[in-house]
């Protein structure tokens, strides 16, 4: 009984801290929550990074190569601030790294500035690129990236800065506080590939349009508007940050879901449904009641508590392919990461899975277009559909007895014309956990409930089964 009371007291304390951190008020245009479009950076023509000169397979190969770089740096240790203090602010090292796959729109300030930021389940801070003191712009992004939008705080009537002596600043920096000459809370957010963003922790009004692109003919789409939202106003970046910013969707205190839950009645939950890469239909991200995963095939598993504050982590108890089951002596943890394209598994699990998956494939092995993805087959004579029928389904046994099925589209992808390659790779020894990447998440409705501490997975056809919410009658 003492343990139950202690956990209850701890939960109340966390809720009170989150509410204090946000200090938000909100107008919600509907009790069922809201939805936004997820834009794939390579495959969607709506993306500013879309390259029309590449074939669909070339775009997939580019995404796979980004995944390799991300996984090699994804050592899952979420370090706290240095605590020593520095002119640049406390440092929080997070597991995520910049090469991400999906973008979403967010409106910052009043009047709102519409910005296209990367959505990331592997980090917790929402930050955008800001002009320095409302005047100076950031240096041009490297790598030929398209022009970006930069938020100018001086043009917003609702912009504020977090005081460096506040509980909010201490909550972000962990053990240390860094102040500038005006007592503002300065921060540095470092990533494991050496990239970083730094600036001033600030507050602002955020506005989310409901289902952009899915409300044809609407004069006024429902909106969610949140005041006093804590975000990073970034005045300096180092590394490959090509978007307008980043939206953290992880389990951390500053994540979008946690702050929305403190500010509104929609709760701390979200869901998403990723369409296959070659399908010309948008993926979707839901918040509130719309995030409920109620499909008949739904399997629920606990979100695991750990020192990895920026990871959405679950337990994997078994893997079954055909009539064979594979289990490790110690049930491993796996990170659900939308920003990693491939799935990365420890060698002890990967090797028997590969042997079983390839046992019934009688086609000729061919050289892979990427050395990190070595197992490829020539399907030019049979086609992708026929090849898929020869690939066994993978049954993932999750902690709590839930089972999720991976089909051929989740374990193989065409990286060049006529060449199908396995999307499972070996996790590097320095990585702290395995990664469930976005290809293995395609055609699944995945719900994350931070209130109930659960993750739910259901196999669906995301392009047809999960539709954009209908607009309210009054807006037609």
From TrEMBL:
Keywords: Aspartyl protease, Glycoprotein, Hydrolase, Protease, Signal. GO terms for biological process: proteolysis. GO terms for molecular function: aspartic-type endopeptidase activity. PROSITE patterns: PEPTIDASE_A1 (PS51767). Pfam families: TAXi_C (PF14541), TAXi_N (PF14543). InterPro entries: Pepsin-like_plant, PEPTIDASE_A1, Peptidase_aspartic_dom_sf, Plant_Aspart_Prot_A1, TAXi_C, TAXi_N. GO terms for cellular component: extracellular region. Residues 1-26 form the signal peptide. Residues 102-458 form the Peptidase A1 domain. Belongs to the peptidase A1 family. This is Peptidase A1 domain-containing protein. It comes from Triticum aestivum (Wheat).
